[in-house]
Amino acid sequence: MTDFRDETIQLAHGSGGRATRRLIEGLFAPLLSNPALDAMGDAASLEVDRSRLAMTTDCFVVNPLSFPGGCIGSLAIHGTVNDLAVSGAEPVAITAGFVLEAGLASSVLRAQIEAMAGVARAIGVPVVAGDTKVVEHGKADGMYICTTGLGRVHERADLDPARVRPGDRVLVSGPIGDHGITILVARSEIDLETDLASDSRSVLAMTRALLDALGPGVKWMRDATRGGVATVLNELADAAGVGVAIDEPEIPVRDEVRGACELLGLDPLHVANEGQFVAVVSGEDADHALESVRSVPGGEQARLIGEITEAPARTVLGRSGYGSARVIDVLIGDPLPRIC
Amino acid sequence: MCLAIPGQIRELLPDDEMAVVDVMGVRRKISMQMLVDEPATEGDWVLIHVGFAMSKISDEDAREQLRVLEAMGDDADAQAEARGYAFGHAEDESGGPAS
Amino acid sequence: MKYVDEFRNAELIKRTAEEIRRLADPDRRYRIMEICGGHTHAIFRFGLHQLLPKNIDLVHGPGCPVCVLPSARVDEGLEIARGNDLIFTAFGDMMRVPGSHGSPLEAKARGAEVRMVYSPLDALKLAQDNPDRRVMFFAIGFETTTPSTALTILRARERGVSNFLVHCNHIMVPPPIRAILDMPDMTLDAFIGPGHVSTVIGCEPYRFIAEAYGKPVVVSGFEPTDLMQSIAMILRQFRDGRCEVENQYARALPWDGNPAARRAMETVFEPRESFEWRGLGFIPGSGYRIREEFAAFDAEAVCEAPGVTTLPSDPRARCGDVLKGALKPSECELFGTECTPETPVGALMVSSEGACAAQFKYAHVTISA
What we know:
The structure holds 3 protein chains of 3 kinds. Chain B contains 2 helices and 5 strands; from the N terminus they run βββββαα. Chain B is an alpha+beta fold. Chain B folds into 2 domains: 52 residues, SH3 type barrels; 27 residues, no CATH class. The radius of gyration of chain B is 16 Å and the shape is elongated. Chain C is of the alpha/beta class. Chain C folds into 3 domains: 134 residues, HypD, alpha/beta domain 1 (Rossmann fold, 3-Layer(aba) Sandwich); 152 residues, Rossmann fold; 44 residues, no CATH class. Helices cover 36% and strands 17% of the residues of chain C. Chain C is globular. Chains in contact: A-B, A-C, B-C. The interface between B and C is large, with 49 and 60 residues.
């Protein structure tokens, strides 16, 4: 049974919020249902000849193609590696499909592929296959990239939302919102200027350090891309049937991201990241978890931002630090700047 | 109904009565046309709404408010009596020097 | 001093909460309307209602321009743009506001040329950058925003930009407050006044609320300590038997507002005889239109509005009762079922500062912080 009733596909169906969930849960999941898909992780978990493998796929659509701190090419590799990393896996190989718009300058394409190659080399994952399609001018924003990533699951990893319990703690790997605000600024519609750069990076070294240190003490991980930290925490609350309470003063946010959010009426928790993940670790291992992430270069600003609670179930609360709290909901549609 | 946020003037631009303001490290060009009666200068703080400076922020009044807030709870009645509680009437328009 | 964090200080917020508890008379109820949607948003974002004693109710007012905009205006704006091959520009807030045939964002997904702008000056720049196209700015907002549209039109005239148009939906704060105060089932005791609107109109225009209707008004800033302090100031007026207009927001708000902004506004705009508010109906003298002198920039004057059919609003949506404080959002039968922020039936569900959307987003769970 599928219960997706929306008449047409709207941009909101791709923005990572409720509409996306409605599309996935109402159409894709029921029609394509199988145990690996039904787990709804960032990567599917497969067992082949008694090896635990993780497999993920991702499409990259970004305008502009290059922005401070990254480009669609580096994003494609980082995003794929990160989906594997937060699934507790070490990447083994990546494939990439390219949809190119007729008229795209070869120099632009070359720069993107060079960026992909550089990033893949640095992480140590080969791009082992590819495919190319060219569409008419005007039918794509320059280029789109679709990837598949294959990884081998860390032997001590046991990531499963069903293992999340009240008293577990929530860790975030660093300051949030850099990517989304950088892209918003780079699009120049809003005409803001900042020194911000996207956080596009691999989180593999951090997730590896966390799993090496805690093994099954790590219960759940997600990279907080579209829809931001708020969205992944809501997915956690739903999947685990628990409450998530975060302490808002503890959330690391750079001044520039805050400034842009204040100016445009956005919530940093809804802004996309491309190099930050959120993890749930058992309460007694929390300090150890924080140390292990902070010991990795780039992980110094990791923070424990909250805890898992029993009630209110399936809800994310932001605690203010002065005796009040608010419900932190998933994003509805794309984040749009507001003036009122 | 109206989102407005304080920013500091970094640079007055010669043309168009515009200025570059800074909001926590984010910069934008805004119009200073609404402040013609009471021109602002570099370093001043202004309230920004849809790309326009709406008013100058008075450091003096901001500090005064914080003083009143800090006194709350200590001896609320005494401080309120002394202060009358309402500041900001016709005679004390804001526009004092900002730091 | 950054003028933001200082006023979000946890210790100071706690002190204001204590002060409110001390001032509130436990033997009575206080129904206080925050007029401004920005205040509604701040109250939920910072959880301020949870810090108040049970006998203080905050009633969310009509001060959200996208919420009170009737679908007929959205329909007309989109239709004028479509029928005359204009580029439609509007603030991000407008993008999801439903007309009878969808929102500007949906029109864009169907192929219409719809752009989001942060400032009316950005729409003017778009017109200057595209001299072979006509650009229409769909203008919304209260008196805070109206002067910026006025100054943009003045600049367009000064520069001789002839491909820039404005569809004017600017509205005023005092008339709907009077309309609410005149409603027979009105139960409000006091008002938190809109600090940012007042940076233009000043505090004088609220005097009738205190003097003719006997309801205290405190014009407030938007940070948590501002709102809490304003509530304390209202309670103090009740305790002392005073009834007046006070300015809590002196750091950014001169008592007299901004005369230069008002001059620009009055040069370009004049009051309409009547303007429709979603949920409140037609209110005399509550909207602005572009003066004849500037008709060349007035989309309503320049463009044919092709016959627009506006569908009647759902009679079960009780936005009007919520706006005047007679009904809590959750008491409406559509709330949270057919009417949600993603599929809004009524206007108050549209903007995150609409009373219903705010309640849906932030308050549907009982919170014990």
